[in-house]
Amino acid sequence: MRFFSEITKQPQIELASRRGHNRAQARVPVLLYSHMTYYERNLPHWHPAGCAIFITWRLAGTLPETLLGKLRNSPEPANRKFALVDCELDRAAYGPRWLAETEIANAVQQSILKGAMELQHYELPAYVIMPNHVHLLVDPRMPIERITRGIKGTTGHVANSVLGRKGLRFWQDESFDHWIRKPAEGEKIIRYIENNPVKARLVTNAGDWRWSSASAPVAQALVPVRGSKAKET
Questions:
Q1: Which of 5, 157, 200, 233 is the most buried (most CB within 10 A)?
Q2: Is residue 22 within 8 Å of 45, Cβ to Cβ?
Q3: Is 144 exposed, middle or buried (0-12, 13-18, 19+ CB in 10 A)?
Q4: Per residue of the chain (233 residues), what is the pLDDT tens digit?
Q5: Domains of the chain by residue range
Q6: DSSP calls for 91-120
Q7: Which has the closest alpha carbon to 109: 223, 209, 226, 229?
Q8: Which residues have a Cβ under 8 Å from the Cβ of 149 and sit 6 or more positions away?
Q9: Are 217 and 223 in contact (CB under 8 A)?
Q10: Given this structure, which CATH class describes domain 55-175+183-232?
């Protein structure tokens, strides 16, 4: 892994109000100019300070190597590659679906909510836990790699214990992340995340999926956190 940074103009943050939900509005920070931090392992990641970031990671072994090979050699832009991968994951036709097990999905959800409400590592405008992958939209208060490492490390250990597995990888190491550039983009990603179970034909209504920020009990639990963040800004 390598690190370097580039200084650009001073940060100017624009806040997008969240609409169309029966809960207190959350605000999604959007970067206009910022100090940008880059790190690289298998893929490049740009993490500008002071903006919301859309993160996706998956279970290990959930994509066929033939597809991964094609994507590595494809000239398609990153957003197109992500769309292809996410469609394949929604089909859940290859590899494990361990997040469909209630005990494991609950453990992942508890870890995500703990990071927002108890540890306050990030504000959490939206998230969803699918049978083989996870989507988050966060306003981080620490480096993204620390957030994902913490969630994946803790939940991977718990899940392997539930499954009776030892010394085996639960999560794929690499994550996809995309920083939010405009308020409308943040709104679009929130809808994308919370409607993912509907798109995958797991439920008819987004609010019926228990492991999502669209679920009414979860939304109510997140209201105080969002309210306190709004007061700070």
A1: 200
A2: no
A3: buried
A4: 222 222 223 333 333 333 344 443 444 544 332 333 333 344 445 566 778 999 999 999 999 999 999 888 889 888 888 899 999 999 999 999 999 999 999 999 999 999 999 999 999 999 999 999 999 999 999 988 899 999 999 999 999 999 999 999 999 988 888 888 888 999 999 999 999 999 999 999 999 999 999 997 887 777 554 444 444 44
A5: 55-175+183-232
A6: HT-SS--GGGSHHHHHHHHHHHHHHHHTS-
A7: 209
A8: none
A9: no
A10: alpha beta
| Tokens of residue 176, six digits | 């996809």
Helix, strand, or coil (residue 62): coil
Q: Please state the length of the chain.
A: 233
Amino acid residing at 19: R
Listed in sequence order, the residues at least 6 apart from 140 whose beta carbon sits closer than 8 Å to its beta carbon are 53, 121, 122, 147
Angstrom distance (rounded) from CA 114 to CA 24: 19
Tokens of 39: 């790190």
pLDDT at 49: 72
CA atoms within 13 A of residue 117's CA, in its CB half-sphere: 13
Of 150, 144, 149, nearest to 48 (Cα)? 144
Do 83 and 117 contact (CB within 8 A), yes or no? no
1 burial type by CB count under 10 A (0-12 exposed, 13-18 middle, 19+ buried)? exposed
- Yes or no: say if 128 and 197 are a contact pair by the CB < 8 Å rule: yes
